[in-house]
Amino acid sequence: MKTYKIPMVPGPTSVSHEVLEAGMVNFGSADLERDYVDLYVETGKMLGKIMQTEHTVVIQTGEGMLALWGALKSSLRAGDRVLVLSTGLFGYGMGEMAESLGCKVRIVEFGFDETLHDYALIEAAIRDFQPKMITMVQNETPSGTMNPVEEVGRLKEKYGVPLLYVDAVSGIGGSVVKADEWHVDFCLGGSQKCLSAPASMAFLSVSPRAWEIIGEVGYAGYDALLPYRTAVEQSYFPYTPYWQGTAQLHRACRLLLEEGLEKVIARHEKVAEYCRKRVQEMGLRLYPAAGAVPSPTVTAVYVPEGMTWADLDARLRDRGVVMGGNYGCLAGKVFRIGHMGTQANLNLVKEALDVLEETLHG
Ligand code: PLP
C-alpha cells in the first residue's frame, strides 16, 4: 500500500498522532457505562460550539452519509415536498436521496461553479411549492464553493418552512457555521473533513421542531435518529457505540477549541487565499466562476489543457503528493486541493504547490 508524504485530499484528511492515540485504548462496554455517556455528551457539547448551536447534537457511528440519510429518513414520508437548492454534486444528490424515499422533489439549480444567488427565484419556489424541507450544501466539496445558509434560513423563517437541512460536512470546523442563528434544523457533519479524525463518526444538530417531526414520522432503522432523543437520559444507544471513534472525535474537537474557533477559521481562510493565488500564478484556472464564493477548505482547479488528470495525478504521486480527483461531470476536468483541518497548514500547502509547479513547468 502506498502512502504519501504530502496529503492534500479533501477528506479523509490526515489524522494527527494525538487524535489517533486517543482511540488506541480499550474501554468498557460503552452504553452500559456512565463514562461513555459522559464522553458522548462532552463531545456533543464541543461539536455544538463548533457549529454554534444550542440544539441536541447526535453522534452516530459511520460517516457523513449516514447522518445525511438518517436525517432524511427520520423526518420525511413518501409524498412530502422537498425543495432542493443545488450548486453541485452533493446538492443534486440530496434530491435523488429524497426522491428514492418517495418524496416530491423540486430542484432550484445553479451552475456547479456557482454560489446560490438568485434569492427571488428561491423565494418564488418556496412560495409556490410550500416544501416541508429545504435542503442545501454549505460547502460543495467537488466544486470548491460555499453557499450562504443565512439567506436561505431567513426565507425559511419568513415562509414557515418546517425544516432546513444543511450538509456542512466539509465546512464544519473550517468555516463559519451558525446553525441556530441561520435557523438550521439539521446541520450535518462528519469526522473525516475539517476535524481530521478518522472516517468513523457522523454527527448532526437536531432542532426542537425537527425532533417533533422525527417523533411523528417514527422511522425505525439502523440510521434512525429517534432512539437518540432519549439515548443520554436512558443511557441506552440503539447499537454498541464506537467508543474509540468517539474518543478520537472528542480529542479532535478539543484540539480545535484549544486553538480557538476563530483562529482556526482564520487559518483556513489564509491558507485558501494563498492556495488560490499560487495556482493562478502557475497559469492554472480556478473552477469557481467569477462571483462565486470560493471555499476556505478546498480549492477546485481545472486540469490544464494538454494533460489528463490521470497523468497529472500519477506524476504528483511519484513526488509524494496526493490531491483529490473528482466525480460525475467534474471527473477528469477538475481536481482539488484539500486544505482543511490538519492540512490547513501554510507550510504543507506551500510544499504541495511547489511540487505541483515543478510537475507542471519543471
Ligand atoms: N457532503 C459533502 C459536501 C461531502 O464532501 C461529503 C464527502 O466527501 C459527504 C457529504 C459525505 O461524507 P462521507 O463521505 O464522509 O460519508
UniProtKB/TrEMBL annotation:
Q: Name one Pfam family in it.
A: Aminotran_5
**N6-(pyridoxal phosphate)lysine modification, residue list:** K193
Binding residue positions for substrate: R336
The protein's UniProt keywords, in alphabetical order, are: Aminotransferase, Pyridoxal phosphate, Transferase
Checking SUPFAM superfamilies in the record gives: PLP-dependent transferases
Answer yes or no on keyword Transferase: yes
Q: Where is the Aminotransferase class V domain?
A: 58-323
Molecular function via GO: alanine-glyoxylate transaminase activity; L-serine-pyruvate transaminase activity
Name the needed cofactors: pyridoxal 5'-phosphate
GO BP: glycine biosynthetic process, by transamination of glyoxylate
- Among its keywords, does the record have Transferase? yes
Give the record's family classification. Belongs to the class-V pyridoxal-phosphate-dependent aminotransferase family.
The name of this protein is Alanine--glyoxylate aminotransferase family protein
